[in-house]
């Protein structure tokens, strides 16, 4: 909205109007009585109700005073007949039926129409239904009463513009156009029937928000398409929230909830936050079952209206789904089948919806075909992603995870630390030069990983599908709304051959002048120095890896493992040693390498020789390589590269 413009002033006026109405209703509820000031109050009794477009029209008879009981209601033929207009919000609040008595408080207005005998009452926001007795109040809560039908007038455009070729069918009022006012009962044996199946189904999220307000949607549904399914970490204040007896999911200390990104027929997006999930492993099956399907939302309430500036992560995902793949409806315009969707401006706002406790909220027709509006993730090769020029763009790709490393910031709790996954694919392994053969993917603490993914990465190198990761400033980041999967999605658009198959053994880039911190590389060189103060070795169990072995009580020459409760006859020797290398690829740099895993065959004899003799001269000049290393730091003053030997998954 332009600052100071007419639209902004109208928006402020509407907000003040809604606030005044909400405050007045809250005051009536808290006082539990009808306002005592009767001056200017219009008292009417409803005779008939029907709908005209978005307005509810009530044919009423004006009463002189408010009756105290049903017996006091006397129908006087001389009392004037009025046509009272209620907005959808007011009608939903009143839930009026014929024979109800309504008090309409100022400032209501009376409109006298030419050639019409019945005056029209407008501006009826401050209205209240009068419960005449306890019997009447009980009647409101009874479901077994006969259903009263609200007539809905269907007026054709031909009738509106007085065209001659009217279709007779348009003049007939069918019983199908009558909406039952009382709640519907269903056969409990039919599990597929939805309790709200007979309520009105809308196709516009905006219309639902404007008509139902932020409090909640009652007896109405909106039909949308599920574009994405993911998990979001819950806020601190939401951790104690439960739905029934089912708490929010906990993933390694992180509380999270299942979420849906949905889109309506007009292209408007909304994020729906559900409240319970048995485990994070269920996310993958929900993705396969729900994405691309149409669903009906009911019982929703607005949690937040967010904008592009407040939720960059959410809108980066929305932008990846824009423009729509099929023409969408445009409010107030004729729907041309050849309407271009490329010129539509991207969404600037999004409503965050949540379910109301105890209400049915999402109904997905899993047997339905995939919607034409659905946009599956576009799968790219890593080489193509690294050449993208944009910033904060979503990307999806297959990659082989070679190594993972938890960022060691001791001031940050373990469950909030970032994790680096070093990945590659066939497009990078086939590159000769110019592009790295391995890429680091940063997984932030806000990215929810399933236990299946965590266990798979702990077991060894796995092929992982990264869906909707974020690319920008030369980095690939897994943030909120990024999903990691082990199985290929049912629908995904990819060009070319299968990118998941590697051409052969994995190759790393050798250390050179372009090496950066927090990367991995292959290293070869000549030993020129040893840090004697940090050199040591220790035996470990060859079965469980226990590094705290004891002397066997029966045989002092053997070692014993308490965890395995067995004698260790062939222990694995682990050692830590810092050596300085001279590398042809970086002749001007001091290269320091820490070796502390089970060392490779290339340096095993060299390290053992030093640890047995502790003579630096015995290892100087020895050739080392190829070592797989993690680059800790790269400095120019002094010109030094600090590395650590690693073992790939």
UniProtKB/TrEMBL annotation:
Matches recorded under InterPro entries: DNA_repair-scaffolding, DUF4502, DUF4503
Organism of origin: Dicaeum eximium
UniProt GO cellular component terms: nuclear chromosome; nucleoplasm
Residue ranges constituting the DUF4503 domain according to the UniProt record: 263-648
GO biological process, one term: regulation of establishment of protein localization to chromosome
Region (Disordered): 172-193
Domain DUF4502 as annotated: residue spans: 1-111
PANTHER family in the cross-refs: DNA REPAIR-SCAFFOLDING PROTEIN, DNA REPAIR-SCAFFOLDING PROTEIN SPIDR
Protein name (database record): SPIDR protein
Gene that encodes it: Spidr_1
Protein origin, superkingdom: Eukaryota
């Amino acid at each position: 909205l332009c600052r100071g413009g007419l639209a902004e002033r109208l928006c402020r006026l509407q907000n003040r109007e809604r606030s005044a109405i909400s405050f007045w209703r809250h005051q009536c509820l808290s006082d539990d009585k009808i306002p005592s000031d009767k001056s200017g109050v219009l008292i009417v009794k409803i005779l008939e109700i029907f709908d005209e477009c978005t307005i509810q029209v009530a044919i009423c008879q004006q009463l002189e005073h408010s009756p105290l009981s049903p017996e006091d209601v006397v129908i006087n033929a001389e009392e004037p007949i009025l046509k009272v207009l209620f907005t959808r919000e007011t009608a939903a609040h009143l839930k009026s039926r014929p024979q109800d008595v309504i008090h309409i408080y100022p400032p209501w207005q009376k409109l006298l129409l030419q050639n019409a005998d019945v005056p029209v009452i407008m501006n009826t926001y401050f209205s209240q239904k009068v419960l005449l007795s306890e019997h009447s109040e009980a009647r409101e809560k009874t479901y077994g009463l006969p259903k009263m039908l609200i007539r809905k007038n269907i007026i054709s455009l031909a009738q509106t513009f007085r065209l001659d070729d009217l279709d007779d069918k348009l003049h007939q009022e069918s019983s199908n156009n009558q909406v039952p006012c009382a709640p519907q009962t269903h056969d409990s044996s039919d599990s597929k029937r939805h309790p709200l199946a007979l309520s009105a189904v809308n196709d516009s999220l905006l219309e639902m928000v404007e008509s139902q307000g932020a409090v909640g949607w009652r007896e109405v549904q909106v039909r949308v398409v599920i574009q994405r399914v993911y998990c979001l970490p819950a806020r601190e204040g939401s951790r104690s929230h439960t739905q029934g007896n089912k708490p929010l999911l906990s993933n390694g200390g992180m509380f999270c909830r299942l979420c849906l990104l949905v889109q309506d027929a007009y292209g408007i997006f909304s994020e729906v936050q559900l409240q319970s999930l048995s485990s994070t492993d269920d996310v993958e099956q929900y993705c396969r079952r729900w994405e691309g399907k149409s669903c009906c939302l009911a019982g929703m309430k607005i949690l937040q209206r967010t904008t592009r500036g407040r939720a960059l992560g959410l809108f980066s995902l929305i932008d990846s789904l824009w423009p729509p793949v099929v023409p969408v409806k445009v409010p107030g315009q004729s729907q041309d089948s050849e309407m271009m969707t490329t010129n539509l401006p991207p969404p600037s706002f999004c409503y965050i919806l949540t379910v109301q406790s105890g209400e049915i909220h999402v109904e997905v027709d899993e047997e339905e075909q995939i919607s034409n509006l659905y946009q599956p993730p576009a799968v790219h090769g890593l080489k193509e992603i690294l050449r993208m020029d944009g910033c904060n763009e979503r990307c999806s790709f297959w990659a082989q995870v070679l190594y993972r490393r938890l960022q060691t910031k001791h001031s940050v709790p373990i469950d909030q630390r970032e994790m680096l996954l070093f990945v590659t694919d066939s497009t990078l392994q086939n590159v000769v030069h110019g592009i790295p053969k391995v890429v680091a993917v940063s997984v932030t603490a806000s990215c929810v990983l399933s236990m299946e993914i965590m266990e798979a990465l702990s077991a060894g190198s796995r092929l992982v599908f990264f869906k909707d990761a974020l690319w920008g400033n030369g980095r690939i980041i897994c943030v909120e709304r990024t999903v990691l999967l082990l199985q290929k999605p049912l629908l995904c658009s990819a060009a070319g051959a299968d990118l998941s198959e590697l051409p052969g053994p994995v190759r790393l880039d050798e250390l050179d002048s372009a090496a950066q911190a927090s990367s991995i590389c292959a290293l070869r060189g000549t030993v020129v120095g040893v840090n004697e103060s940090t050199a040591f070795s220790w035996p470990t169990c060859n079965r469980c890896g226990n590094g705290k072995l004891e002397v066997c009580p029966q045989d002092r020459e053997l070692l014993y493992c308490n965890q395995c409760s067995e004698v260790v006859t062939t222990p694995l020797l682990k050692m830590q040693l810092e050596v300085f290398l001279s590398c042809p690829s970086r002749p001007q740099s001091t290269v320091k390498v820490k070796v502390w895993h089970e060392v490779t065959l290339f340096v095993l004899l060299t390290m053992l020789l030093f640890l047995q003799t502790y003579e630096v001269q015995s290892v100087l000049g020895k050739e080392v390589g190829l070592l797989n290393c993690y680059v800790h730091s790269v400095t120019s003053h002094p010109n030094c590269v600090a590395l650590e030997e690693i073992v790939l998954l």
